[in-house]
Amino acid sequence: NIVNTILVDFRALDTFGELVVLAVAGLAMSVLLRSRRAFEGPPVTIDHTALDNSSDNLVFLRTLARVLVPVMAGFSLYALLRGHDAPGGGFISALIGAAAVGAAYLSATSDRWTSRRLPYLAIAGSGVLLAAVIGFVGLAKGSFLEPIKFSLLGWEASTALLFDLGVYLAVFGVVLAAISLLGAPTDHEDEGDAH
């Protein structure tokens, strides 16, 4: 079916274009937020309330996160592996995985949790690079991003899964950038840290 082939090719190319735009947006967000100046002025004082003790107030969320975060991570992997043959795929599975990281971040008792940042720009960049390489591998068969089937330990797969992995890494990296950069910096963090 010629129309179907054209639609599939354009969808793959469209997804790749969206992936590049998303990674550039993550890079721009990183540059913008890392270049901001610290607030200069008198410290803001807030009267002490029952909400001040974050450790006591996060008991329910921390308990829920212990169960929810591994389940969300597993479901993220399931959606990634399922996506090239059924509903799912790199984008939605990355959002599920990033939501697990967000839940872990929200259940932390302090912003020092962000000191264990992953290199989010490298993750997003490697996703775009992987998707581009897989796209050019498809050229060997005839067109950019054309899937090529292969067998891995008796499991049938195609390069579409690797393309979805690239999408996953790019989306996950951008969401990690938002989580890491929007958290309050701690005293020991150096503003010039490279990620």
Quick synopsis:
This protein is mainly alpha-helical and 195 residues long. It is 63% helix and 4% strand.
Structure description:
The protein is mainly alpha-helical. Helices cover 63% and strands 4% of the residues. The protein contains 6 helices and 2 strands; from the N terminus they run H-H-H-H-H-E-E-H. It has a two-stranded antiparallel sheet with strand order 1-2. Strand 1 (149-152) and strand 2 form a beta hairpin. Helix 1 (2-34) packs antiparallel against helix 5 (120-139), helix 1 (2-34) runs parallel beside helix 6 and helix 4 (90-106) packs parallel to helix 6. The chain is flat.
Secondary structure topology:
Layout: H1 2-34, H2 54-57, H3 59-82, H4 90-106, H5 120-139, E1 149-152, E2 155-158, H6 159-182
Antiparallel strand pairs: 1-2
Spell out the key features of this protein.
two-stranded antiparallel sheet, 6 helices, flat, disordered C terminus
**What is the share of helical residues?**
55-70%
Measured distance between first and last alpha carbons: 46 Å
Label the structural class: mainly alpha
* Largest beta sheet: strand ordering: 1-2
User: Which word captures the global form?
Assistant: flat
Compute the number of helices.
Answer: 6
Q: Bin the strand percentage.
A: under 5%
Largest sheet: 2 strands, antiparallel
Low-confidence stretches: 186-195
Number of strands: 2
Order of helices and strands: HHHHHEEH
